[in-house]
């Protein structure tokens, strides 16, 4: 049984894949260059681009509806005994290859900590800081209509 504060392997993988998917191909390549060389990886599924239907909900919790289509690129690579998968928004085949390779490396216990410390954690921190900056910019333009109504 896992402890409540210990993320399950599935949720940990979801978190690192989300970070890799939001990063640029250049950021992934730079991080990979900082790591010790990885063994030769086998391409199981070459990057291929297609469309997926994006669903939305009215008001966040209403009835689901088809919002539109989105371009997605997927890739699968084997690194030793581990298979890495990547689904990324857009058409960047290099980014899909790098994300799949890093997913496979992160599943390997011998490489996991180094990849997390060198690539995933710095990217996650930078992405969180970028979200905080955007949130501050949006908050600065916020209008409190209740306050305006009481000012009359």
What does the main sheet amount to?
3 strands, antiparallel
Summed over residues and divided by their number, the pLDDT gives a mean of 89
Q: Which runs of at least 5 residues are low in confidence (pLDDT < 50)?
A: none
H/E order of the elements? Answer: HHEEEHHH
Q: Could you say which structural class the secondary elements and strand pairing correspond to?
A: alpha+beta
- First and last CA, distance: 60 Å
Number of helices: 5
| Number of extended strands | 3
Shape: globular
Gyration radius, rounded? 20 Å
Neighbour order of strands in the largest sheet = 1-2-3
Query: How much beta, percentage-wise?
Result: 25-35%
Helix content: 40-55%
Tell me what you see in this structure.
- A 3-stranded antiparallel β-sheet has the order 1-2-3.
- The longest helix is centred in the last third of the chain and has 32 residues, at 109-140.
- The protein is built from 5 helices and 3 strands; from the N terminus they run ααβββααα.
- The chain has helices spanning 9-22, 25-33, 93-107, 109-140, 145-150; strands at residues 42-57, 64-79, 82-89.
- Helix 1 (9-22) packs across helix 4 (109-140), helix 2 packs across helix 3 and helix 3 packs across helix 4.
- It is of the alpha+beta class and 152 residues long.
Short summary of the structure?
This protein is of the alpha+beta class.
Keywords summarizing the entry:
5 helices, 3 strands
Blueprint of the fold:
Elements: H1 9-22, H2 25-33, E1 42-57, E2 64-79, E3 82-89, H3 93-107, H4 109-140, H5 145-150
Antiparallel strand pairs: 1-2, 2-3
Helix pairs in contact: 1-3, 1-4, 2-3, 2-4, 3-4
